[in-house]
Structure formats: structure tokens, C-alpha cells
Amino acid sequence: xxxxxIVYSIxxxxxxxxVEACGTHAGSYxxxxxxxxxxxxxxxxxxxxxxxxxxxxxxxxxxxxxxxRVLRHFH
Length: 75
Prior knowledge:
Helix content: 10-25%
CATH class: Alpha Beta
CATH architecture: 2-Layer Sandwich
Largest sheet: 5 strands, mixed
């Protein structure tokens, strides 16, 4: 089985929180928490399949000087 490194990026875009995986739009959510929950569930599922997953949570608009928060690192 091929093992992939997958990065989920959660970021605010036009008033909603979007989830992207490998450059592909994976959903839009009203709250940051909802987007994080969906990305975490998907990451768990993919890790069980043997893939390396990383989740990056970008900061809300107006706080771009803060660094990206990495919630899950590759193993």
C-alpha cells in the first residue's frame, strides 16, 4: 500500500472557515471549531489507513503576524 503525507489546512476565507487537503477544497464551515473537528476526524481515519497526516490551523484575519499553529505533526 502506498503511504502518503497529507496536510490539512484550516483557514478563514470570506467569513467562513475552509478546510483544504493537498490543495483541494474539502469543505467550508461557519466556525473554526467545526472545521477543526471535521479535519481531525478525517485525519484519524487516514492515519488508521497508514498515511502520515498533518493539520495546520491558520490564524483569524487581522492576526497574520502570529505563526500558523500545527496541531498534528507527521510521524
